[in-house]
Each structure stands twice: as structure tokens, then as C-alpha cells.
Amino acid sequence: MATAFRQSSRGSGACITDFYDVGSRLGENTCGSGGEILHSKRTSDGAEFAVKKIAKLGSWEGKSQVMVLQRLNQRNIVEMVDWFEDADNLFVVMELARGGDLFDKISNVGRMSENQAANILSQILMAIKHMHSKHVIHCDIKPENILCMTSDEDVPVIKIADFGFAQLADQGCQAMKHQGTLTYSSPEIIDGKAYDSKTDMWSLGVLLYSMLAGFAPFGQHESRSRQMSKIRQCQISFNYQAFRSVSPDAIDLIRKLIVASPQQRLSAADALRHPWVINNKKHSADMDALTGQIKSL
After folding, report:
1. Residue 4 maps to a domain
2. Checking CA distances to 140, which of 129, 151, 165, 202 falls within 20 to 30 Å?
3. Which residues form the Protein kinase domain (predicted)?
4. CA-CA distance, 207 to 87, in Å (whole number)?
């Protein structure tokens, strides 16, 4: 690895290899938007971290990720610990998630119970609410970018990661740079229109559908043009076996997120007040209390 210095969170001239032993890639599919994810250990105490190595290529995108993460401070958003750069690359040191991502979890279980999905969704909503209050639009909310901090929990603590496509939109402004993953992209994104934080809420509706069904509403095995047509028309179906046991409240929340008009979509604060989220959080609290009582017997 080339010596990484020039600018960093530790001041000009600091080198990542002075503070961290940077190793190999974390898994086969750990190339977030614009970079690869490497395992590292802090030399002072052996603590383990993930390092995102981003080729600069004359682009401002790498530095913008640092700017975005410096704005954010919330327990369900991956924390940036350090950053370094040299002439060719930017190195962003982040906390390490040991439980894989939500895509792996959905793939392993097929579909989640409503209680599991609501617990995860409420954590994501808290993160998105914080992001939007700081005028950050993530632009790529999808299962692969939702990290599980541990692998031994039925409902893990999760964190939103990969801010490679994130946009900063000052109050009252809209963003214009169009990027993200088609399956989770809103109509305004695919049509090249100006967008705001509500584009993340569309993606969240697609994510909730995927957690409850085990597959996305806009077929990933269809042609790109067919997917785009279904997205523009909000053409989603609940006529699948997976939805026969899903509550009307859950379907109502999905319908209020996957809406063509951004102005009509729920905000993160609105979604946190939705009956399905509130009732499932109450159920989780009741079950935790019951489990505690049983353990004390």
C-alpha cells in the first residue's frame, strides 16, 4: 500500500499506516459505492475497524463522504473514526460491523416477521430522521447498505452505511445528481428530476416490502425498461403468498411510502408515528419485559 498522508483527521502529514495495520478486503462483496472495504487494526490497542479505500481520480465524491459523515452523529449511522488521504486515495476508518448486512439476513431467512421488520425499520427511521435534519440525503437506501453490528441476535442493532452517493441539500434546496440502485430508486430519480429527502422514503418503502416478502416489489430479474415503467406507475402487488399473513397496517405503511408524488410520501417523523411501527415497538417492549421476568425465575 502506498503511504497515505497529506491530509487527515489527525492533521497534515499523518499517515494511516502509522496508526492502523490495514489488511485484506472484508468478504467478497465489500466494494461500497466508489471504493473497497478493508479490515484494519489500530496499532495502539488492537481494536478492529473497517477502512473504505476510495480512489480519488480527481473526483470530489470521496471527500464529500467525509463531509457527510462529519455532519452525522446518531447510533444507527456508521461512525467515522478517522480519515486519511494521499495523492491517489482517500481512506475512511469506520466502526466494524460483524453481522453482515440486511441483504444477507433477508437471503438467509427468506422473509421476516412483522415484529423483526418493524424493529429494524424503526432503527433505520431514527437514522434517516437524523440525516434529514442535517440536510443529508442518502440516495442509496437498500439492504446491502444496512449493516448488522452482531451476528448472534434475532433482531440486531443496525447501522446505515455507504454514503458514497449521499447529497448535501441545504434547507429549501433540492438535489440534482442522479445515482443509486435502480430497484430502490424513486420515480424522480429515474426521470432525472430534482429531488429532496423524500427520495429516501420511497427507498425505505421498497426496503420494508422486501423485508416482509423476501423479494423486492420491482423485479430485479426484469429488464431495466420494465423496472423503470413499474416504478413510474408505482406498480406494486400484494397478491403473493408472503402477504397473506401480513397485517393491513403494514401494507398501509408501504402504500404511504411508495407514492409517486414526493409531497405525499410520509416523512421519517411521520413514519415513526405510524400505528404499525408504534404497535410493534410496544409488542417488542412487552416481549422484552416478559423475557426478563422469565429469566429472573
Report:
1. no
2. 151
3. 20-277
4. 38
Which of 95, 121, 148 is a domain's end point? Answer: 95
Could you give the percent of the chain with pLDDT greater than 70?
82
Of the candidates 194, 99, 83, 107, the one whose C-alpha atom is nearest the C-alpha of residue 155 is 99
Q: Which of 140, 162, 196, 200 is catalytic?
A: 140
In terms of C-beta density within 10 A (0-12 exposed, 13-18 middle, 19 or more buried), how is residue 224 classed?
exposed
The length of the chain in residues reads: 297
Largest CA distance in the chain: 63
170 against 95, higher pLDDT: 95
Q: Comparing C-alpha atoms, which of 206, 188, 208 is closest to residue 198?
A: 188
**Selection from 280, 238, 253 nearest residue 113 by Cα:** 280
Cell numbers placing 217 = 416489489
Q: What angle do CA 262, 268, 270 make, to 5 degrees?
A: 90
Give the whole-number percent of the chain exceeding pLDDT 90. Answer: 64
Rounded mean pLDDT, 101-106: 92
pTM, full prediction: 0.87
Classify residue 293: in a domain, yes or no: no
C-alpha 98/C-alpha 91 separation (Å) is 20
- Is there a catalytic annotation at residue 21? no
Cell of 47: 481494536
Q: What grid cell was written down for 125?
A: 427511521
Which domain range does residue 189 map to? Answer: 102-287
CATH of residue 175's domain is: 1.10.510.10
Cα 44 to chain centroid, rounded: 30
Angle between the N-to-C axes of helices 275-296 and 248-257, in degrees from 0 to 180, rounded to the nearest 10:
130
Which of 27, 61, 95 is the endpoint of a domain?
95
Q: What is the pLDDT of residues 41-78, one digit of tens each?
A: 999 999 999 999 988 775 556 678 888 999 999 999 99
> How many domains, in total, are found in the chain?
2
- Can you give the pLDDT at residue 9? 65
